[in-house]
Amino acid sequence: MTTGDHIPMLTTTFFPASVPQRPMGHYAHIVLLRETDSYSLFQTDGELNTARVHAGITHDELITRITMFKRKQTTPERLIGRELLRHYGLVSGDSAAEGKDRKTDDRGVAIDPTGRPICDYNVDFCKQCPDCVSYGFAIGDAGSEKSKVYSDTAYSLSAFDSSHESFTLNAPYEGGTMSRKGEVTSRINEQDHVRPQTLFPAVITVRDLTAPLFLYVLGNVLRARRYGAQTTRTGTMTNHLLGIVLADGEIFSNLHFTQHLYDHVAGTPDFDPSQPINVDVALSAARALLPELISADRVAVRQLLMGEDLARFVNELGGRTRDEAGMGELLHAAARDSSAYHAAYIQKKGRGK
Given a cut of 90, is residue 329 above it in pLDDT? Predict the structure, then answer.
């Protein structure tokens, strides 16, 4: 299959043929139920992020929920994509040189000795790869590009009390004990963690990207596994894909989705607010709820892909990306679209200064 072929089940004609300079109302929404698979850390200043909100729409009691801020979601997914771009040779793994040692191509993009563009995350963006065009960049006076991938704070479906656990952490000496030469270490700390099987309903909105670039973003979401504090101790997470919505505007928020889903789950016979929410029950309720929430939004929906059609689409996409040739083909198609956008708009802006 070539990238120009029809992708089964997904209406690829909805997407623009090229990334436009101005918003054109091509919104592709990825609806997820994020599930922690291990103890995770979503924190600021050493504490879990939380928010005091209403439990649901009909269940309007106030509860505290764990929050997963925007960057806690998009950064791991973005880094997965950048890793793939380096692996398939579309960007270099080198850091950009400075001064007279810095080499650039005819577009002004820093390149390594082999001629590949150097894209140094948060230091020296290349401005032309699928990551830069999709997720945006900011380089001070050197320019910026607004992200075309929107995310919002995600809220735990269950309350804080049943979603976190506190651990006492220690740092033993190499001998495995907490004492050395008769002195006991004070390197003991207490840290709250998010419990496994805590659920975070979420919507990712992709605006005005071409079909290959949308598949690049979607692939990053499906491949990402580690979220939270950016260390080797990040928690693992599964992103359950509930649906893809192609529309002419934005749909419901994460909090709205979470509160409606809580009402549905709270109405099930075995619901206990003091216990973790059953994942299968939540997934079933979310799939039943999605068309209802979509119909209540004031947007024209071109396609709502879910159920068996969504499963076939994901299997087809997975079959392509599990093969190195297929993955390389998809990434090269995305790179062609991002390079074309760079040449048409970003490069011209740079020359005009």
Answer: yes
Q: For residue 245, what are the CA distances in angstroms to 11, 67, 86, 153, 228?
A: 10, 24, 30, 19, 27
CA distances from 93 to 74, 116, 121, 134, 328 (A): 21, 9, 10, 19, 17
Q: If 0-12 CB within 10 Å is exposed, 13-18 middle and 19+ buried, where does residue 247 land?
A: buried
How far is Cα 337 from Cα 332, in angstroms, rounded to an integer? 9
Say how far apart CA 262 and CA 257 lie, in whole Å: 9
List of E strands, the chain: 27-36, 43-44, 47-48, 50-54, 62-68, 137-138, 144-145, 149-150, 154-155, 164-170, 179-180, 183-184, 188-194, 199-207, 226-227, 235-247, 301-305
CA distance 273 to 306: 29
Per-residue pLDDT tens for 281-327?
Answer: 999 999 999 999 999 999 999 999 999 999 999 999 999 999 999 99
Question: Phi/psi of residue 119, each to 5°?
Answer: -125, 100
Query: Chain-centre distance of CA 104, in angstroms?
Result: 31
Secondary element (H or E) of residue 280: helix 279-296
Whole-number pLDDT of residue 48? 85
- What is the SS3 assignment for 70? helix
Instruction: Give the distance from CA 285 to its chain's centroid.
Output: 23
CA distances from 92 to 88, 115, 233, 326 (A): 10, 9, 27, 21
- Say what the pLDDT of residue 4 is: 42
For residue 200, is pLDDT > 90? yes
- pLDDT of 95 reads 82
Cβ–Cβ < 8 Å for 303, 11: yes
Three-class SS of residue 146?
Answer: coil
